[in-house]
Amino acid sequence: MKTLILVRHAKTEQLGYMSMKSDFDRSLKPRGYNDTKLVAKDMISRNIKPDLLISSKAMRAKQTARIFAEQLAIDKQEIVLEQFLYDGYTTSELLSYLEQFGNEHDNIMVVGHNPEIAMTAISLTDSDYLHFPTTGTIAISFNADNWENINAREGKIEWFVTPKMFK
After folding, report:
1. Contact by Cβ (8 Å): 98, 110
2. Is 17 a member of any domain?
3. In sequence order, what E strands does the chain have?
């Protein structure tokens, strides 16, 4: 059994004409930190700890991943940072990337951006629509022993949470 946990990064500062930051460098707002801790607390209550944590290299995704790592007792130095998670990808490209892990890591968490996170979740399950607010987190399980055997539309949604569920 393999489980893929997809997370949209937490709430960030707005990108405006007065901002000197690029989209890539936007940071989390205080609400983003709090929301991530709420979702992590829910994961702890479910006894869920990813074997591997992969994040976009964008600042807001890295910050979200680091909060999850801290809350879930994962070594922050072991977070895998991937540029393609910021640049955009297809479900097929993500699945090809995951194939390198073979039968390692039964539970992998990926922290990225919309619309790719939502589209990937829809593509991997039989869902027609999933609204992914910031820090929206979904666990999708697959009846497979190897990441190479994961296919679109074969995943089962185990749980889907958003920070508003805990407020």
Report:
1. no
2. no
3. 2-8, 52-56, 80-82, 107-112, 137-142, 156-161
Match 């055997």 to its residue by tokens: 149
Domain count along the chain = 1
CATH number at residue 65: 3.40.50.1240
Predicted confidence (pLDDT) per residue in 57-110, tens digit: 999 999 999 999 999 999 999 999 999 999 999 999 999 999 999 899 999 999
Residue whose C-alpha is closest to residue 56's, from 22, 13, 7, 107: 7
The sheet with strand 107-112 has its strands ordered as 80-82, 52-56, 107-112, 2-8, 137-142, 156-161
CA distance 20 to 116: 26
Those residues whose C-beta lies under 8 Å from the C-beta of residue 45, and which sit 6 or more positions away, are none
Which domain range does residue 101 map to?
Answer: 2-12+24-166
Distance in angstroms (rounded) separating the CA atoms of residues 28 and 148: 34
In whole angstroms, how far apart are CA 12 and each of 26, 47, 70, 118, 166?
Answer: 7, 28, 19, 18, 19
Distance between CA atoms of 113 and 103, rounded to whole angstroms?
26
pTM for the model stands at: 0.96
Please report how the helices 59-71 and 30-45 are oriented relative to each other, as an axis angle in degrees rounded to 10. 40
